[in-house]
Amino acid sequence: MTLPLPGDLPVPLRELGTPAERARDRARVARKWAYLVSKTSYIPLPPDEVERQFLELVDRLFAAAGSEPFDPEPAAAVGARLVELNLNGRQTLQCTLDVLGKALAAHRPQDRVITLLGSVAAGYAEAMRASIFEQQENLSRALYRAVRDAERRLRVSEQRFEEVFRSAESGIAVTDSDGDFARANQAFARILGCPEDGLSRLNLFEVLHSDDAPFLRELFADLRAGRTRRPTQRRRMVRKDGEVVEISLTVALLRDQDGQPDQYVALVQDITDFHLLQDRLHHQSLHDALTGLPNRQYFTSKLETVLRRADPETGCTLYHLDLDAFSMVTDGLGREVGDRLLTVAAARLESVLAGERAMVARLGGDEFAILVENSPTTPDVVTMVTRINEELGEPIYVGDRGIAVSASIGVVDRPPRDMAIGELLSAADMTLRRAKSAGPRQWELFDPQQNSADRERFALAVTMPGAWEIGEVDVVYQPLVTLATEQGAERVAGLEAQLRWDHPVLGMLDHDRCVDLAEETGLLLPVGEALIQSAAKQLAWWRQRLDDPLPLHVSLTPYQASDPDLVAAVRRGLADTGLGPESLWLGMPVWALRAKRGEAMDNLEVLADMGTHVVVTDFGGAPGDLACLADLPVHGVRLAPWVAERLQRPPADKDLAVRALRELVALARTRGTTVIAHGLRTREHAENAHRLGVDIGRGDFWYPPGSPDEVAAALGIE
Q1: Cα dist. 618→418, 437, 589, 615 in Å?
Q2: Exposed site from 61, 362, 401, 618, fewest CB < 10 Å?
Q3: Alpha-carbon span 446 to 78, nearest angstrom
Q4: Edge-to-edge strands of the sheet including 171-175?
Q5: What pLDDT, on the 0 to 100 scale, is given for residue 7?
Q6: Which residues form the PAS domain (predicted)?
Q7: Residue 138, phi then psi, degrees to nearest 5
Q8: Where are the beta strands (DSSP E) in 282-364?
Q9: Are residues 221 and 253 in the same domain?
Q10: Residue whose C-alpha is closest to residue 348's, from 337, 362, 336
C-alpha cells in the first residue's frame, strides 16, 4: 500500500544532540523512506506496521554506521529485508539509496556511508536473485506437478473409457472413413452374432441392411463436411446368421490433434425387443383387452376413413348395439360369466359380418358397434338386425347352464359423407337410446327430425340446473275449482303448485315439461323439495288474507313418491311455515303405489299417519287402482289424462266408455274420496265431469297458472 505523505521533511541525521532528538530524526527518516518506497511497490501491511518495520531498519542501519570496529554486514540484511517486504519495484533500490544517503550524509568519514549503501545494495541484489531463483524453482515444480497430474488424469480417463467401452450394453465401434473397423466392443459383436476378433475383417457399410447403407455413406460425408444431421437414427443391421435386427444408430466424427477428420465412432443399440413391445402396446392401445376387438379410439378413426371413401351409391351403415339384461348375467352368475358372454358375443358378431367389408368394435361395457361398408350384395338393415339377434340368441353353455342375450340396436343407414364423426356417433347413441326405451330386442332407425328433437330435449335438461339457479324456473300456482251445474255455484277449492320455466328462447315451458326435464338429470328431487317449501310459505301468506283455509296440492312423480327423504322434506316444509299437515294434499301416481319395492307405499302410510292428505293420481280403473282405494288411507283420486280427453265429448248413456267412467267414479266416491279431474278446457267439459260425479276440476278457462301476484289478483286477495 502507499503511505500518506509525512508532514515533516527529512534532514541529515545529527551526530550530536540528545537521544530524544536523534530518535525523532530516525522516525522522520523512516516515515519518509516508507512513503517513497511504497509508491514503487505494493506493501501488504497496514500503515502502522510499515512504519514500525522501516524504523527498525533505520535503527539497524545507523547502529551499523556507528559501530566500532566498523561492520557493514547489518546493512546487507536491511537490503534483503526490503525484498522480504515485497519491495521489488524497478525504482525501489534507487529510492532507498537516495533517502539513506541523505540521512547518512552527516557521518564521517564518507567511506563508511558509501560502504553501508553498497552493502544495502548488495543485500538487496542477493535477495532479489534468491527470490527469482526460488520463483523459478516453484514454477518448475508446479509445471512438473501439472504435467504429472495431467498424465495421471489421462491414464484414468483412458482406463474409464476402456471400462465403458468393454462393459457398455450398447455396441461401440470405431471405423475409418471407408467403414473398416479399427476396434469394436463385445456388445457390438454380440449384436452382429460374431466373435469380437472377427470384426476386424468386416465393414460397417456391409453389416447394415442394404437399404440403409446409402444413408450411412451420406451421413459420413455430411459429418466430414461439417453439416449437422439428426444424431440418432432408427436403422437395420444384418446378423451373421442373416437375421435382420432393428437398431438405434448414432454416429460421430473424431478428429486428430490438429483438428482434422480422423475416424468415426458408431453407437448401436439393439431395439428389436423394444420395437416388438412398442408394436404390442400400440395394438393394445387400439384394441379391447378382453375381446380383442378394436376399441372406441380405433373404431372412430376407422369410421372417418370409411365414411369418406364409401361408394356414394351404397354408402355405409353404422349399428350401435347394447346387450339386453347383461347386468342380470353379471349380478346373477358373476363377472367371469359376463366376460365369457362378451367374448362369445364378439366372436358371433364377427361371424355375422363374415364376407362383408366391416369392422366390429367394443365401445365399452356391453356396448358394441358395427361399421359396414355396403356393397350391392350387403343385406338390408332388417335382415342384418335379424341375423344379429338370431346369432346372439343362441345359448352358450357355462357348465350346465345355457345363457343367451338379445341386443337393442340403433342404426344409422347411409349417413351423409360430410357428416361430422362426433355427430354421427351421437346420432347412433341417441337412436339406440330410443330403441332401448321401447323394450328389449328392439331396434330403431335414425330419424333426423326425432334426433333433432332429442338433442333439443337433452340440451334443455342439462341447462335446467343453471336456469333454476338464476331464477328462470319459478313456482306458479293454479286454483282448483269445485264443480256445480248452476252457474255461479263454483268456488276455489285449493291451489296447486307447479313449475314454470321462462326460457329466453323457447318462451314459457309448462309444469309437465319442466318435470320431465328435471327428472332426466336428477334435479327433480331438490327442486321438488324447494317447490313444497316455497308453496307452503306462499299458502301461509294467502291463508292470513282469506276466510277459507285453502289446501295446497302438489303432484309427485313416481321418482319423487319413492324418494326416501320425502317425509323429511314434507316435515321441514310444514315446520318452517307452521301449517298443519292437513293443509297439504300430495298426489302419488297409482302405479308407483303398486310397485314391488314399496318405497312409495311406505311414504304414503307415514304421511297419512302425520295427517297429510294423499291423492292417488293417474287413476284409470285398472284392477290394481281399485285395490289402492280399498287398502290405503287416501283422501282423493285424480283421474288419468285419458279420462279428461273423454270428458271433452258429450256423455251418452249407451257409450260404454262413459258408463265405465261413471262406475269408476261411483266406486271412488263410495270410499268417501274426493274425485279430481285435470285438463278441463271449457265449461261444457266441466259440466260433463260434474255429471259423472267429479268433485273438483282444474282448467285454464277458470284460472290459468300464474305467479303469486297474478293468482292473488284473480282471487281478489289484496
Answers
A1: 47, 21, 6, 10
A2: 401
A3: 116
A4: 181-184, 171-175, 261-270, 244-255, 232-238
A5: 47
A6: 157-227
A7: -65, -40
A8: 316-323, 358-364
A9: yes
A10: 362
In sequence order, the 6+-apart residues with CB closer than 8 A to the CB of 199 are 173, 181, 184, 188, 189, 192
What is the pTM (predicted TM-score) of this model?
0.59
Between the alpha carbon of residue 499 and those of residues 10, 22, 510, 524, 559, the distances in Å are: 116, 121, 7, 11, 16
SS3 sequence, 241-295? CCCEEEEEEEEEEEECCCCCEEEEEEEEEECHHHHHHHHHHHHHHHECCCCCCEC
34 with 108, same domain?
yes
Amino acid type, 473? V
Query: How many separate domains does the chain show?
Result: 4
- Measuring CA to CA, how many Å separate 653 from each of 119, 245, 662, 663, 682? 159, 96, 10, 12, 21
Q: How far apart are CA 682 and CA 648, in angstroms?
A: 8
Angle of helix 524-543 relative to helix 511-521, nearest 10 degrees, comes to 140
Which residue has 475416424 as its cell numbers? Answer: 263
Range of the domain at 335: 287-446
Residues 363 and 507 in one domain: no
Q: What angle do CA 136, 139, 140 make, to 5 degrees?
A: 85
Note whether 360 and 346 are within 8 A (CB). Answer: yes
In a domain, 369, yes or no: yes
- Other Cβ atoms less than 10 A from the Cβ of 318: the count is 24
pLDDT at 549: 80
553 and 467 together in one domain: yes
> For residue 588, which of 611, 612, 610 has the smallest C-alpha distance?
612
Give me the helices (H) in 66-179, please. 73-84, 92-103, 110-167
Ranges of residues in the chain with a pLDDT under 50 are 1, 5, 7-11, 13-14, 16, 653-654
Torsional sign, CA 369, 370, 373, 375:
negative
**What DSSP line would sit under 385-422, residue for residue?**
HHHHHHHHTS-EEETTEEE---EEEEEEES--TT--HH
- d(Cα 587, Cα 568) in Å, to the nearest integer? 17
* Largest Cα–Cα separation, the chain: 172
Question: Exposure of 175 by Cβ count < 10 A (0-12 exposed, 13-18 middle, 19+ buried)?
Answer: buried
Q: Which of 83, 119, 126 is nearest to 101 (CA)?
A: 119
Are 352 and 258 found together in one domain?
no
H/E stretch holding 173 reads: strand 171-175
Which CATH number fits the domain that encloses residue 328?
3.30.70.270
- Alpha-carbon distance 66 to 191, whole Å? 94
With contact defined as beta carbons under 8 Å apart, do 58 and 33 qualify? yes
Q: Which helix (H) or strand (E) holds 31?
A: helix 19-38
- Shared domain for 264 and 292, answered yes or no, is no
Instruction: Give the phi and the psi of residue 518 in degrees, each rounded to 5.
Output: -65, -30
Among residues 446, 478, 501, which one ends one of the domains? 446
Residue given cell 334426433 in the structure block: 451
If 0-12 CB within 10 Å is exposed, 13-18 middle and 19+ buried, where does residue 679 land?
middle
pLDDT at 122: 84
Same domain, 634 and 699: yes
Q: What distance in Å separates the CA atoms of residue 668 and residue 619, rounded to the nearest whole number?
A: 10
Q: Is there a domain that residue 391 lies in?
A: yes
Tell me which residue has cell 451373421: 240
Residue 77 has a CB neighbour count (10 Å cut-off) of 17
> Alpha helices, DSSP H only, in 544-565?
558-561
Q: Is 637 helix (H, G, I), strand (E, B) or coil?
A: strand
Distances (CA, A) of 418 to 121, 166, 260, 365, 430: 107, 61, 62, 30, 20
Measured distance CA(385)–CA(408) in Å, rounded: 9
**Nearest Cα to Cα of residue 633 among 588, 695, 583, 677:** 588
